[in-house]
Structures are given as C-alpha cells and as structure tokens.
Amino acid sequence: GTINFSQIEQTKYLELLKAADELGFDKIIENLQLYLINHQQDYLKSDPIGILQIVFLFEQLILLKEFCLKLICQETKILFEGENFLTVPAHTLELLLQQDELALDEIDIWNYLIKWAHAQNPTIGHDPLKWTEEDIKIMKETINKLIKLIRFQNISIEDYINKISPYKKLLPKNLMSDILQISNMKSFELDSSIIPVQKDLYPLLFLNWINNEDNIIYKTRNFLQYEFKLILRGSRDGFDGEVFHNKCDNKKETITIVKIKDSNKLIGGYNPLGWDGNDFKNTLNSFIFLFNDYKDINTGKIGRVIEKQCAIRCIQKWGPLFGKINNYSNDIMMTPNGEWSSSPNSYPDINIPRNFKIDDYEVFQILKRKF
C-alpha cells in the first residue's frame, strides 16, 4: 500500500519517522523526509532546533538534519535570538559551531557563546574579572569543547582586546600572539579600480554564486577564509591576449570582471579550471554574469553553463573565452588585440551587449588564506 503524507497531522510526522526507523522501513523514512522538505517547510521552520535535536537521535534522518542545519546557518536569528537558545544542549551547539556556512560574524558567535555559558551557570557573575578560581574552572568545563570552535583569526584586534581578552583565563595559551601575527590580514574587499563602491559585497555575491546560491547575498564564516587576489588589470598590464595568458595560465578559480565603456555595465565570468591549454574545458561550475549598474549589486544576473563540454575555450594569444563560437563570437570573447564581443550559445542569454568597447578589465584568483 501507499501512505498519503498530506493527510497526516503535522504533530504526527516525527512520530511516524521514529516508528519507521525502529521498524527499519527505509523507504518511508526517505520519502517522508523529502515530503517534509519539499511541502512542509513552514512546519520545519516553526521549530528547527527542536526538530534537529530529535533528528540527532536517528542516524537515517540525514536529509532533515542537513535541511535544519542549512536553515539555521542562513537564518541565524532562529537559533541565537530565539527564546530556546539558552537551553540548547551543548552537543547541538557544538554541531552548529562546526558549520562553515554559519552566517554570523565571529565576534557575535563569541558573544552568544558567553551568553549561553552564563545561562548554564546562573550563579556565576557576569564580570569575569571578579571570578573565583572555582568560577573559572566551572566556566572552562562548560565551554571547553565549544571555545575551540571559535575562529579567532576572523576577529579584529579591537574586538579581541575589548570583548575577548577579559575572558583570557578561559582561552587557549598563545592565542594573543597568534592573533597579532595575522592582524595585518587584508580586508574582505576587491582590490578593484573598476568597482569603486560595494567592494565588500561583490566577493560575497561571487562566492554565493560559486556555492550555487543564486538569489541571496549573505556572509558566512567560511568566506573569510578566502581572498580575491588581483592577477591582471588591463590598464596596468596590457589589453592583449598574450598578456592575459602570461598572467592567468595555470591559475584555477578565476573571476574576470569587465567594465563596458560609456556605461555602468559590468560583465564577466567564473572559470574554475584555469586558462592554460589549447582546447575546450569541460565543467558544470562555470558561469557568466552581467550587472546593469555596478553601483547597485542587485542588478546582477548570472548565467550558468548549459553546454558543459564547451564551458571554457582556451586559445593561446586570445583573451578569456566562455562557451563556443556562435556566428561571430563566443558567449564572451576577447580577441588577441583586445576587442570584446558576445553571442549566446553555451550559456543563457543574459543580455550582454553583442559588441562593446571596454574601459578596463580585471582578473582575480580566489585563494584560501594561509593563517
């Protein structure tokens, strides 16, 4: 027989999952998880923390676990501003603090952790400078595992001194010296001469696009591990194809950004594979983009590759080529002498002008920071 999940009361969903797990009904477990994720998101969003704690108890509920984790990471107020935050078990909080995609500044994560720790030990005062040795011991035992999950390298020196150093007796040894060694870390902005505004938002948007999140701009703690290294600027290095390959060959994960002359339009694309070689490169992860007005990041459009076997075209002495040629141009094409054009083929038509002159173009390589 079949089960019509839509006729089941919402309060019974988790009971059915528990029973199916105990009886080994794997198909029911899989289908009900998919039904909840696809058709009952309001129910899941009503109490993702409570659902997550139940899901913890059953190894097979992987889909629900991943959904709840992603939801909490993106909509952090559900957890950290919720009335149940202070009663969340340590093992649940530990799992959440392990997530790279947690969309919170690290200093805010620290503040929430301290707030949670005080709630577990309400008899201990809020001024750490007045703690007794017993107070320190209790607080250490409370957050020892959790404090190791704080990414202190993502916290500014100012915040470290003002908000963290008062709790220095809880901290790992040598932490301050480690922080000072990386305090000259570059800010999370594009070193761009063609994008004078919103320089901190463009990297976030590009990283979201790379992670297949097309409709949102949010910062996760994972993103701070990356930098956009400028490897070519046309006005500085030259506009011909030979310069492009000298600067960009054998470099994976590059973003090309082009400023169209006499307009506010930006176009470009992402190549995860590199520009060396002399043939097509196959990938499902490349994309092209258009911003109708670089001053407003919300005007951005993305076109993901359709014909993966022709995603990237490498020809020595030519500039970046996205897609295969259609009539007179690739989806984005730079000729050996620096002329630009576009003709949709291997990517969707996102209204990039067919022929255009440029003010400048830049290529950035996305690198993981070394702390």
Automatic annotation (TrEMBL):
Known SMART domains for this protein?
A: BACK
Q: Which Gene3D superfamilies match?
A: 1.25.40.420
Record Pfam families: BACK, TLD
Residues in a coiled coil are none
Q: Which residues form the TLDc domain?
A: 203-367
Which PANTHER family does this UniProt record tie to the protein?
BTB (POZ) DOMAIN-CONTAINING 2B-RELATED (PTHR45774:SF3), BTB/POZ DOMAIN-CONTAINING (PTHR45774)
Q: How is this protein named in the record? A: TLDc domain-containing protein
Lineage of the native species? Eukaryota, Fungi, Fungi incertae sedis, Mucoromycota, Glomeromycotina
